[in-house]
């Protein structure tokens, strides 16, 4: 702003004689006159004014500055209603807007707290999607026979090498008889401890208790060999078929592993060994021999408590490779003499790892069951903790279906249900172990820590269908023979091509044997003539044929997603802020700006007031540099001394100071109204 001042002052009376001003309003003129009047006061009056100002500076100026800053913040704030409080001339309207701001702020705080609380609960929903043409690994299948004893068991029982089921039943009954005989003639006076064997004689006459009273090595001898899976067939997605009779899948990267079960004794898990074979296989067929019929007339009298569990056929479970097969909980029964098709759809679970329900990324520590190593699973982890607590406190191994056994039982640590000489235990040991397991096995500190589930795991939704298998024994015989001869011929050709020519002659006899077998099939007039010598498994209905195949190429993905994510929480809180008081992120900058202006103004006013007091109380006037220039200072205001002419810088300072005094006067009037 350009202005021209011309002033002539009289040194005798200190009065201003003339002002010529252009482009300056009345407020600027008053501000300049006030500065000149203050500068022309006598020295003694300036000293007294300085003392008075010094005494009032810490209180009045600070209070006035706070009010002015608060009004400035309210007027310039973007919060809805704050400018209304600063600008309104009515006290009713100011109170109304103040009540609105307080009420809406409380609503905002409560609503935001509820939203944050909901977020911290980490509720999830399961989002299911169907992914087409997605390759997945072929599952493992564990097969158990409802009739667990093999033909070899009959001979072991007959020569008394192993205690028979009949011998086990008689031992329980003798135990109960001894308890009754202790009461002599007055049975009504029988004691509780003497009645226990009577209860146990019936309650513990079951297959899984017999399993615990036979040595582990003998349980394997009593049950079936892997050859119980008589025939098997594998198909790949490339159209290849491999029929095996007897079933041996080693050449196709499949293995058959033993799994010992308290009810079914020897079970067998058929699973792929490599990722390539797991991804390529789409079909697996298993024809299982059900073994000999029970000899109830002689050696298999017993197991009265299993009367409702006895069945014929198979019990199987489909699970991930190298995972513990929980046959009891997830198993399916397969009817004898039928063809059962299990069409599965792979389902991949992807759980959300949240602080409320955490899960394990990747694989955790594996565990062992009777020397076989299994990958981690949550259910078996929990049961393993109970197992270890029983071994530590009771000195025995829990033998229940689904409970992993970390070591093979022996005379030092046997099963909790044993009471025979198989592990050098007595009935008293059995009662002590049973009481310890029921009463003393409590969750320890380690057991209280929950086992976490895996974040990523697979399930297999299976649809079961049953029908008659229309094949005959002679068809199965020739099919197995012919396919085996073809595979043998292919192996011989591969070996011949990989050897030097001089070593190829050694394979000639084997080629002749394969040729002879193939020609036997090709020249046979009546293929049914081998009926008498063929295996009678199919037509005798003493089999179960299981087909496991993938239903389609699609994958079902079940993914857990948070109901309220962090982005959704911020959006919800932002909507609440906008709905109530219009609070935005800019308010943070406004608060910082307010404190910056307040602190800067307070510090500047304090320094200016102190400088003015020091100058007025120093006895004399102005400094040498200022007097030489003809200019004096009062706070931040530039004042022309008498007899000096203003420069352009002096004129600009006077104009700026006039602006500040006008603004200060307006804010002071508004704060006084409040």
Please describe what this structure looks like.
The chain has 674 residues and is α+β, with helices and mostly antiparallel strands. Among the domains are: 69-123 and 571-593, no CATH class; 124-151 and 226-364 and 452-471 and 543-562, Acid-sensing ion channels like fold (Sandwich); 374-445, no CATH class; 474-527. Helices cover 44% and strands 19% of the residues. Helix 4 (91-120) runs antiparallel to helix 17 (566-580) and helix 15 runs antiparallel to helix 16. Mean pLDDT is 79; it is low at 1-25, 39-59, 618-665 and 670-674. Residues 1-22, 35-62 are annotated as: Disordered. Keywords: Ion channel, Ion transport, Membrane, Sodium, Sodium channel, Sodium transport, Transmembrane, Transmembrane helix, Transport. It is a multi-pass membrane protein. One of its GO terms (molecular function) is ligand-gated sodium channel activity.
Fold topology:
Elements: E1 7-9, E2 16-19, H1 26-39, H2 43-76, H3 82-87, H4 91-120, E3 124-131, E4 140-145, H5 151-158, H6 165-181, H7 192-203, H8 207-212, H9 216-222, E5 229-236, E6 241-244, E7 254-261, E8 265-272, H10 275-280, E9 281-289, E10 313-319, H11 327-330, E11 332-335, E12 339-350, E13 359-360, E14 367-369, E15 372-374, H12 378-393, H13 427-439, H14 445-448, E16 453-454, E17 456-467, H15 473-498, H16 508-522, E18 543-550, E19 555-562, H17 566-580, H18 586-616, H19 624-629, E20 631-634, E21 637-640, H20 648-673
Parallel strand pairs: 12-18, 12-19, 13-16
Antiparallel strand pairs: 1-2, 3-19, 4-8, 4-10, 5-6, 5-9, 7-8, 9-18, 10-11, 12-17, 14-15, 20-21
Helix pairs in contact: 1-20, 2-18, 2-20, 4-17, 6-7, 15-16
